[in-house]
Structures
1.
Amino acid sequence: MKKKLVSLIDSPGFLSAMSSISAIVLGLLFGFLILLISNPGQAVQGLGIILQGGFSGGAKGIGQVLYLATPIIMTGLAVGFAFKTGLFNIGTPGQFIVGAYVAIYIGVKWTFLGGVQWIVALLGATVAGGLWALIPGILKAYLNVHEVIASIMMNYIGMYTVNMLIKRTVYNSLKNQSMNVAATAEIPRFGMDKVFVNVKGNLMDTSTVNGGFFIAIAAAVVIYILLNKTKFGYELKACGANRFASRYAGINEKRTIVLSMVISGMLAGLGGGLLYLSGANGRHISVIDVLAEEGFNGISVALLGLNNPIGIVFSALFIAYITLGGNYLQRLAFMPEVINIIIAVIIYFAALSLVVRQVIMYLRRRREQRAAVKAAASEGGAQE
Amino acid sequence: MEDYVVEMLHITKEFPGIRANDDITLQLRRGEIHALLGENGAGKSTLMSVLFGLYQPDSGEIKKDGETVRIDDPNDANALGIGMVHQHFKLVHNFTVLQNIVLGVESTRHGLLKMDQARKRVLALSEQYGLRVEPDALISDITVGMQQRVEILKMLYRDNDILIFDEPTAVLTPQEIDMLMEIMRGLAKEGKSILFITHKLNEIMAVADRCTVLQRGRCIGTVDVKDTTREELSRMMVGRPVELELKKNEAHPGETALEVRGLSMWNRNRRKKLLDNINFHVRKGEIVCLAGIDGNGQSELIYALAGLRPIDEGTILLSGQDITRASVRKRNDSGLAHIPEDRHKDGLVLDYTLEENLVLKRYHTPAFQKHGFLDFRAIRENAERLIDAYDVRSGQGAATTVRSMSGGNQQKAIIAREVDTGSEVLLAVQPTRGLDVGAIENIQRELLNLRDQGRAILLVSLELEEVMSLPDRILVIYEGQIVAELDPKTVTSQELGLYMAGSKREEVVG
Ligand SMILES: Nc1ncnc2c1ncn2[C@@H]1O[C@H](COP(=O)(O)OP(=O)(O)OP(=O)(O)O)[C@@H](O)[C@H]1O
Ligand SMILES: [Mg+2]
């Protein structure tokens, strides 16, 4: 029994989970610091609210956590998947928003589809996200343009294009946002509206959560299987780890790079569809010149989840939980801007501390080289 | 009291699943050349890494000049005057040769690099020791052989006085090895102390004063080289007598398996022909050796045959089938196996496990996947079979990450994989590089077996002994051309050397 425990503690999976958890603790501590600075009197109470997260909102609150987790599971998967294959897809905001727009467009306009409208809308979102990632993928594979640069450009192109298209096609000018999608385009609730609801007398305060959450979970499972159990996953990871050896093995590494980017983009695009096909109470695209935060949060999610699909589901849930907790801070005397900062600080600080840890590990591996250089440098000085 | 510069006393180092060093004691005298001998995976590199501060021993003590020292990192090692040339080089690939050598010891004046002075010094060193390098070439563009020379120059440039060479000769040509031996003798005479890992007993007999033998992590003993023989050394390290002479039967070549006609390749800026009208063939049931000094086009030719580099003119036929434009996958699947020159760049995915690497060429075949899903049972069974057959040693068997394996065992894994594909044609580039004598014996016997079973083998070797003993025909390549076809039974090594150096040639037709 004891031996089992020791081997569990020694196992790499446990160690990496611990590193994520300690990163989260660090993030929370830092968040608390900001709370102290901005409103010392209510800082402790504020931290309590954040920690209570979604739970302070009752059953509906938990539903909202799932709703908010859904899109960032998808963008987290997008980033994590690409990373496993050696690519840094920082283009998730663009892919996400393009997917979202296509989903909304189909959801508003193609009512003739009837009951399958939501499915087609989600498919459209997936395809759009994939296409948006295709360009950086091709540039990377065939012209050796770094995917980070290409996908950042695609982010801005995507955002401005979508803003323009919304205004032309599915614009609710009263609220400066996209229109409500048709009822047949809403993702079915699968009974979740019965569970995640706060009943106050006759009033039903229902969560916006819907079957999209299950779709995101399914996507995580599919990606897990794809990466770990299939021939294609073997190729993808091999290309990420060693391009030359992959070529030697007969893998078409250019095609693999393109496909990897496309799949990553499809995940992010689907995430856009899952968030926005959610009825009048759900989210709408606001026509503002800001990149979709769900896209960037995908990076934090992937980092905290250590790029593991299952880990990503949990880290997305955590971030959604904290985000919601942060929103409840409005009950205290915190300004909304400060709340946003606090949430962002917790998320990014946690993610960052992981990055720092990884950098340290990386440096340690190379320390022999660096140390040799340093030692030699002091020696060189003596020679002067 | 003996005058020891470095003493490593009762060093023990464990890795998951394996005790790489088990109570090893090694004492280095001032000014001696001390060889370290042992089978692949015996723990030689680990022991040297402990001395260089890359690993901390679990127990044991290190003394420098009689005083106990702590070597926490290579920084400390360097401060103690300990330098190391690694088995796998540590060069910055997008830097030039010169930049790599002076990296970290740049002299500056007013914040500007004084590269001229550095260049002069590097050129002088390279001249003095006969280490031919192109100072302005990028590391990524030069051959493995030249990279090795850069590594050695780096150490000489830093004036270290305890020099660790981890298999420095594995990639050098015979001439270069002779020169290196000279250098090492010279350095020792100047009072530098050298630790020298090699698998080549001749080299130990030629330069070393003493030799410490390791076997599976344990120290078997230290012997004076002048009182021992090659046979004795190999028996000590393997634990059984080893056949140092290769016995082989007559070859019975059959039909042509690989044919190359008029193959030419230009360099990137199309100024120079790297390969110039190459014609030759390899028949089933024979071993043909492509002999030449490193950098004369043999790497490019193999890359061209394997489909890893496009050619400009010519035709390549595999069992009569034109594969000139075929993809790498197509070539692999139609019967071309390839033991590559650079095992880390091309041959292995270092972050994959041993079992994953053992199916690198065949994961896509029905034997290892069904409907796109990998068959992990089959992959594991395949690995276990090959590990057993080729004696691939590692800490955690099939599940070991290849990065953590010893160099020789990585090589054995590649050989196992490539030989096992059952391909008609095998391109074997320095197949026995980095292997211990026992393993070399096994691999060479295996190659002869394959030949007798009717496979066609194109061997590239820099090892003169191997060139003279293994093949049935020798093709000499010089400056991108095949300048002679020789019979190993009749040619002398001096004559072969003349052809390889380009001072003699004959008209050959393919
Ligand atoms: N970083 C590591 N992690 C885990 N195991 C390791 C590590 N480094 C070495 N080993 C294991 O320790 C053993 C000794 O390895 P080492 O590299 O010292 O062998 P070696 O004597 O240099 O062999 P070779 O002649 O093949 O280079 C091997 O079985 C290897 O798998
Ligand atoms: Mg070694």
Note: Chain B has three domains: 4-238, 246-335+425-510, 343-421.
2.
Amino acid sequence: MAELTMIEAIRAALSHALETDPDVILFGEDIGIDGGVFRATDGLMQRFGSARVRDTPLSETVIAGMAVGAAAMGLRPVAEIQFSGFLYPALDQLVNHASRLRNRTRGRLTCPMVLRAPYGGGIRAPEHHSESPEAMLAHIPGLRVVIPGSPARAYGLLLAAIRDPDPVVFLEPKRIYRAVSEAVETDGAALPLDRAFLVAEGEDLTLVAWGAMLAVADEAVARLAEEGISAELIDLATIKPYDRVAVRASVAKTGRCVIVHEAALTTGFGAEIAADLAEHCLTHLIAPIRRVAGYDTVMPYLRLEAQYLPDTGRILRAAREVMEFT
Amino acid sequence: MSTRAASFRIDCSACLDATGKPIGKLPDFAEDANTLAALYGAMVRTRAFDAKAIALQRTGRLGTYGSSLGQEAIGVGVASAMRVEDVLLPSFREHGAQLWRGVTLEELFLYWGGDERGNDFAGPRRDFPVCIPVGTQFPHAAGVALAMVQRKESGVVVAMGGDGATSKGDFYEALNLVGAWDLPVVFVISNNQWAISVRRREQTGAQTLAQKAIAGGLPGAQVDGNDVIAVRAATERALAHARAGEGGSLIECLTYRLGDHTTADDASRYREDEEVSAHWKEEPLVRLRNLLVARHGWDKAKEEALLREVRAEVEAAADRYLAIEPAPRRAMFDHLHATLPPDLAALAEEAAGDG
Ligand SMILES: Cc1ncc(C[n+]2csc(CCOP(=O)(O)OP(=O)(O)O)c2C)c(N)n1
Ligand SMILES: [Mg+2]
């Protein structure tokens, strides 16, 4: 088994898909000779040729729209949007076409495409490069939104997304692209979509997180353990449709829940989870649900981004409040 | 049977060759030593700013930064043709234009250092901040022009973008509207042959970028973008055309990106050093200096004095920038709305307590 970072695991998954499925094609800005600005596709054009790994002109509209057309013809396009901040011209294609082509044609034409995009803050990037649009995308019926939380999950979930018969937006937490490596079995085995992953088992409190917030939440779990608090940590992984069953089961056990995300608090995906728990787990809850999230502000440019992003301290304060609630 | 329905041609203008020898008669402004010295000084200043910005980034004191090395003549040439009351909508690589328009070195450092306060420049108050999502500034330009026409102002709008930006719908859509409504917008395309790692020919099959204007009903022309005199002259013509109520136009400035795309890029992954060295022979500063030497008594002493002055100015601006404390967390809420709604005010209070 190889020790891989998340970016290497993504490359390994892309490479496996290109090797094993002739219908898989990759396109996007600078993904060819440059290997993508984060090097997700490093070496793939050289290995698989520029017919299967293509640089496009600078147009997110045509990247997403072309993916819809190619997917409808039976190819498996895996398109890259260079940063999630530039995905917005592609929204028209996602909302009006990718997510509903199957529905509109009663299953005659389908859209097995993947749109990959690095997202999130923490890397001192320029303006518009650090936002977290998962909730906006999750609000599009017919679209899957997946965020890997570790190298192994990136590998398995990306393969699952590519093999899935429907469109998936695969948001990659770029802050942890190279943060850690772990052993990844690169045998082509996919991990299940629509399922959460239990990262740490605990009894007193459920933490729900995804993307780069997992590492921050993980640190909080360790600190809470020192205080004698046993926290369970769930990686949501597929944001839409999400694994309500797993979240409910965990909260039914612990009675307490803190949800962590980078995106702005109001109508962030945490709101959806909290609402579901309020509807279905009320009798199990022994404390209010808390959300630790980005503020309802524009994602600040780099000098203030550390002040914006949820950190361990904020998670700990919320967790302690929840634990002390009577 | 078919008859010719329409025909077009795209011209390319230049005033100096790469060694600084005039090609034909120069425009009147280029006969004036002070004007030429000012253009040269502005390009030298832009280059010095670029060098310092990269040095600051390399030592962790600035964010990701895209230099305009080799493209200084475009920003300076375009801005020097504009009037104060005109409005500039720059891409992220037109530092020379912003500086000429009166944005200060310190403000530019502050912005690229990751602080939005750098966009609140004291100088050209109606100019837009740099545009990061490629091409999205072009539709704004149409709106700025619409406002000017509505208010019977005589200003003209200049929107600048790269070769890559001409692939975006935003660009074509704005061109089309500006053509349909005869709005006073000058589109300036800095064609530096690359959009990160994508070559100009991979970006579009069109023979020139200038001809994209034709489809929108605007005149389009190429100019040697390393020739500040030619850039300024072409911009003056385009501005006069628009100011006379004859509508917008497009100028494709031919240049070359001598540096990496940004400090986050490594261009050696996708282009040969030889290509870059060949283009160094055409860079914009030397040719203008040669003209100044040949015709206007520019000499080593003047050159050295200019460099000393510019470097000192850049260093002092960098020092002032580095002394600026980051804004407090609360500042994130300060400019969300004209007045903070009560709900957000409560959140802002909570945020202040977060650390
Ligand atoms: C809409 C959008 N897509 C992608 C990017 C990432 N990006 C930044 S600059 C750039 C290339 C721009 O090329 P060009 O327009 O030629 O300008 P240049 O950088 O050469 O000055 C890309 C792809 C972006 N900023 N905005
Ligand atoms: Mg370019």
Note: Chain A touches chain B through 40 residues (CB under 8 Å).
